[in-house]
């Protein structure tokens, strides 16, 4: 009998202990991991089985760069350098791209020789949305040396040198995509811009210059791409305003993962009011230091008297 009472007492104590433990433990907590607020708002990955909750924030894809989401930096940087063609691609939303360079120009016609140095050829581009880019360009300061050979009444030849230096006008514009490459269709964008008369009197157009441009490109193979642009603008020359058109046609060949060679034709029709058109042929390498940094060089020759005899340029581009 004493043994039976002892067994019943032990059983009762064990039962009470088990009841107290269950009272201190939340319901259904057994074998359930803790869920934090971060788990409720984190999107479901492909290897998870739980569904997304209604508390997830809507995606801001496509929003302005001043809002939280920035587009990823995919692919390689595409600048408007070093040739005369603009790139058809847009800077990603929320990102910036800075381009800069220096150009040397030489031209001799009859008894006049002109040497010009232009820098820093700065361009600032930023993606406002996935389909809208803002652009600001300024060629910078131009240092021109003009040498004229003068013949005196006595028959002597004298070289007269004059310097025409000053800042150039600024250009403000936007770029939007029009077409994406598909079958026979190329990538095409539209650039609408205004040249603002902010330069020195000797270098400025002294008037607003509206311009519309259509850059395009088409990848024939992984290594070979053809590209170019068409433009029209109301220019202001020495003889007054006139409508000017221009076109470029180029080919770029990727010789390795970090270097591309290009060859480009550039024509301006006309070069100035009541003057002939200008035709230029340029070529050079483009080096991709990283996916977001590039360096370039250009050498160009004029194909007629209206164009400069020779040009050389070096520059870079940074995307961030």
Q: Could you explain how this protein is built, in words?
A:
With 320 residues, this protein is mostly beta strands. The protein has one domain: monomeric porin ompg (Porin, Beta Barrel), CATH 2.40.160.40. It is globular. Helix content is 9%, strand content 53%.
Give a brief description.
The protein has 320 residues and is mainly β. It contains two helices and 13 strands. The radius of gyration is 33 Å and the shape is globular.
Could you name the CATH homologous superfamily?
Answer: monomeric porin ompg
- The count of domains is 1
Task: Report strand order across the widest sheet.
Answer: 1-2-3-5-6-7-8-9-10-11-12-13
- Into which percentage range does the β-strand content fall? over 45%
**CATH class division:** Mainly Beta
Helix content: under 10%
Question: If you consult CATH, what is the topology?
Answer: Porin
The total of helices stands at 2
Q: If you average the pLDDT, what whole number results? A: 83
SSE order: HHEEEEEEEEEEEEE
- Detail the poorly predicted runs: 1-62
Tell me the CATH architecture.
Beta Barrel
Question: What structural class is derived from the secondary structure elements?
Answer: mainly beta
Number of strands: 13
What Rg do the Cα atoms give? 33 Å
| Biggest pleated-sheet summary | 12 strands, antiparallel, barrel
